[in-house]
Specification:
Chains A, B, C: Its EC number is 2.7.1.50. Chains A, B, C: It catalyses: 5-(2-hydroxyethyl)-4-methylthiazole + ATP = 4-methyl-5-(2-phosphooxyethyl)-thiazole + ADP + H(+). The structure is a homotrimer. Helix content of chain A is 52%, strand content 16%. By secondary structure, chain A is of the alpha/beta class. Chains in contact: A-B, A-C, B-C.
Chain lengths: 264, 264, 264
């Protein structure tokens, strides 16, 4: 796991263009900024080309999709493909809402994404595997998470990050499992959205190897969250959210290397 | 006051579908999530039916209404009525902005809401009582708050929560007054929005008795805020907001029962 | 520097109507509220006249502009001009995105603004000075910041606040430089948006002297941030953001007078 990418990211300060979930957008912007990237959010298709051009990567989040935003995502996705800019796609709640699944499938047919980041319920829905998702939450299912993630990656020819207590990262063949984390991520809305945007930030600086970029992003967020949670004496989701922004700025490669737990 | 509903809520983890105020949406989502509910927000009418179907309750917030969002609320409200899903309605700033009062009245004529939650200026405006509201704030007036809340409840055939230093909950006949709270709620934007969504969460698990659900929600939020404020040595609205999310997750029935101050 | 305006603001509790950047809107609302103003946000043109009428000042932020929002800003700007209500204009990212520069120029031709608040890259772009802006960040350039701010103020016949490590406030002739601040402002997304809205709050209570209002706003925010940063033992952007909201409520004229560092 090439954790040196964290230092590279801080040196390069890549611009990440987010078509965002308005519920979590401030937290995502602050998380990107604290880590060392430069966030920009937009809801206007007329500036899509300018923003893709200045961005190192794009993150498309379905969290609060509208027909207008879907049209914007189509344009942003196509331009990003033309410019070979990495695209991270976050299919929020496609496991629970049929309309969202249809939108996600249409967008995935419209342009090629680099990474899909979702929870088990969302990745299972995209892979066509039966699963009981619950709203924006992962829900419960009996499937093999690695098999589901691989099926999704193979179907859409991209890297998949299936996040949860263990994060599964796969390009359809290789698999990395990241075991770091804390249950507090589930108690803070937008942890998944932030991971998607951090994957985009790492993909911006490691655009030829998005599998590695995704794995490093997962270790950085899960590890940082674990370090923050270890300092708490009770489950305090508000304090955790503040501490996570602090620590994303302060965390070092060395700290992460000492606690990183993953199988490659 | 049936505070055991808090335990029921945490066991059932109801989905609350919010047509949200974009100013406070992240805080509301985190508050719902911290307490033990599952928030989902949407701005797209095409997924209205799916979301009402998976939700235990709906919360419609006028805080940042647009013509598009008003049309969405009409559809969501009608579908929720068809499915007998409880609706909480938050008429933000109807006391200060004539356009909003008209929109609120039109929506209230379009479908039947279960609970209206607003401050004194907002409830007075809906009830047709003269009052000096100020922007999003309650403003000042000389009326009898209980009479105003009752008049509003009788006019719209629903439960009313008139929140303020004392929360008044009424179904038009019965009245509960909740005396818990802290002035810090006024210093944190979105306290009212959060209360509306918490009322929806309790209505989701106690759909046959929304009067009780609303009263319990008021005690839970006011009591939790009071517990947080009691730990502060100065009026720190930022720290209060973080502590409120923490404590919504940690607070117990027993703690609330010990401090609850209400008249039924 | 007339810091007594802070006490006046808290006494008058002016309503500030924001056409907002959805990324930072909650933080801006809480900052205004904590300081002692009353925020209201709207995205609907149909209520523009009502909101301008009740507001003491208007803040127009291009941060997440859409064609719909641009049309709303046109209407709000014209009505504010008719009512002689101060307008603060925040040209987010006009230095990096040509489309935004065009929109900003069109709006500035449409109505007269009272104050423009931007970073070096944004003010340089409006002034027509060559500069290397980077996304939402100031970027780097070799120009003289005072000359750039003056040129922008003269071109648009308004007060300009060019914010950064040193804030430059000018009406095109007079210049105030505010040297307070902390690097943590750069680590927290939305510090500039908050400054713009605080300028509007002070302009609401000092509408005949917006140059003074802007200078006081700059000292209040930069000074408050400095006081918060002085209490931190490491660069913690999350903790800083919470502390800033706390301290905006608690800070006194006397505290600010003791640390204020400016040239007039």
């Amino acid at each position: 796991m090439n954790l040196e990418l964290l230092t590279t990211l801080r040196q390069q300060n890549p611009i990440v263009f987010n078509v965002a979930n308005f519920v979590t957008v401030q937290d995502v912007a602050n998380g990107l900024n604290a880590l060392g990237a430069s966030p920009i959010m937009s809801a206007e298709v007329a500036e899509a080309e300018s923003l893709v051009t200045i961005a190192g990567a794009v993150c498309l989040n379905l969290g609060t999709l509208t027909t207008r935003q879907i049209a914007q995502m189509q344009t942003v996705g196509r331009i990003a493909n033309q410019q070979a800019t990495p695209i991270v796609f976050d299919p929020v709640a496609v496991g629970a809402v049929p309309y969202r699944l249809q939108v996600a499938q249409d967008l995935l047919a419209d342009f090629q994404v680099t990474v899909i980041r979702g929870n088990a319920g969302e990745i299972a829905a995209l892979a066509g595997v039966d699963w009981q998702a619950k709203g924006i939450d992962a829900g419960t299912g009996g499937g093999d998470l690695i098999a589901i993630a691989k099926a999704c990656a193979q179907k859409y020819h991209c890297v998949v990050v299936l996040s949860g207590p263990t994060d599964v990262i796969t390009d359809g063949i290789r698999v990395t499992q990241v075991h770091n984390g804390t249950e507090l991520f589930q108690l803070h809305v937008g942890s998944g959205d932030l991971l998607s945007s951090l994957v985009a930030a790492f993909a911006a600086i490691e655009s030829t190897d998005s599998y590695t970029a995704a794995g490093v992003a997962a270790v950085v967020l899960a590890g940082t969250g674990e370090l923050v949670a270890d300092q708490l004496t009770a489950e305090r989701p508000g304090t955790f959210a503040v501490g996570l922004i602090d620590k994303l700025h302060l965390v070092t490669e060395k700290e992460l290397a000492q606690i990183a737990k993953y199988d490659e």
